[in-house]
């Protein structure tokens, strides 16, 4: 019997980054044993790095490409005049990304094997950027304008041009560059594409761009509209679109009109891995764990600020920050200096990379202070043990902690606003003081995982998804 081969495409994560999407992907591959996988990694620039995961046996191929590499596509034809003529009818300013994405997808259906990077040397491209410059940005330094556009276009065009290994299905774990590569290769090989979004890519990029100080204000709208258009193309071409929770679909529908292809498949964990860990009901000392990388998006600084308040109320309080410290060294340095400044060296401990299971058995609460999340595995892990959770109101955290319409069994912790360190501190103190609430939250978390978030349920859903698009 020939096994289905799934090309699963990660952008900047698996197999080089631990946790989050990488943990999810590794678990998915490992547990769909009757299918083969080609792991495809989309990186930024070529560089030597160490894998953080050992591939399961059913990974039969690995492929990697870099968005900003200088590739020579010798076997591909340069973009034809007919193509740029069609393109000129589609790309009109001001841009309607949803309409443009739909038209571009239909253009790519019959034009998917070019060296798309040759577009940058076409008369159409040069004339277009000159006309736009003269009309809208004549005061801007032209070399800066030119190279800004180049840096916007080259990763997009590389992702469109690169030939991925031939697979039966392409499963992209984001829209973005990974998604556009999946769509173009799906068209080249006449193979279906499925999309899973943990976070909403175009929304995340929009926030990132608006907050950035390295992109000039004049160019921010252009960057945002490019990512919106990429998402629109991927939504148009994907056969099935899955996300982790219902609220995410509101943002997907900004650029996707076809509700029939949209599904929710929650994350799931192997509850058997945690069955022997008992929840720590004894609250002296009162141990709180933040499981995550020491990076800005996890907002460790807010957790440290909250710890300063809690320490004044709970003398034997301890905060463990459990995760790698080396991904953003400058941010870790700032966090460590904050701990010293607040005189919390005996209260806040950075564990680095450890076996988190050894810490779970000593935690009274799990804390998550992120400013952006999908559906955090650490919350599901905590629930499987019965550890109540305090989390910021991002991603699926509210639904996990408070339940959804299908799950009204009660709260398994407390949800707070992002960056609100006072509310986080008060939530920790509330769960410390209210034994009844804390123990009830522990029971509800365990029930909720078994009802909706087991690995067995997740694997069954993804297997059915793959089979549904190849029938």
Give the overall average pLDDT. 94
Largest sheet: 7 strands, parallel
CATH architecture heading of the largest domain: 3-Layer(aba) Sandwich
Total number of distinct structural domains: 2
Which strands sit side by side, in order, in the main sheet? 3-2-1-6-7-8-9
CATH class of the largest domain: Alpha Beta
Helix content: 40-55%
Instruction: Name the structural class.
Output: alpha/beta
| Quaternary organisation | single chain
Strand content: 15-25%
Poorly predicted runs are none
With helices defined by DSSP (H or I, 4 residues minimum), what is the helix count? 17
Give the total of beta strands.
15
CATH superfamily of the largest domain: Glycogen Phosphorylase B
Report the span from N to C terminus. 16 Å
Description:
It is built from 17 helices and 15 strands. The protein is of the alpha/beta class. The strands form three sheets. The protein has a seven-stranded parallel sheet, sandwiched between helices. α6 links the parallel β6 and β7. α3 (97-109) crosses α8 (217-237) and α13 (377-385) crosses α16 (435-452). The longest helix is centred in the middle third of the chain and has 21 residues, at 217-237. It is globular, with a radius of gyration of 24 Å. The mean pLDDT is 94.
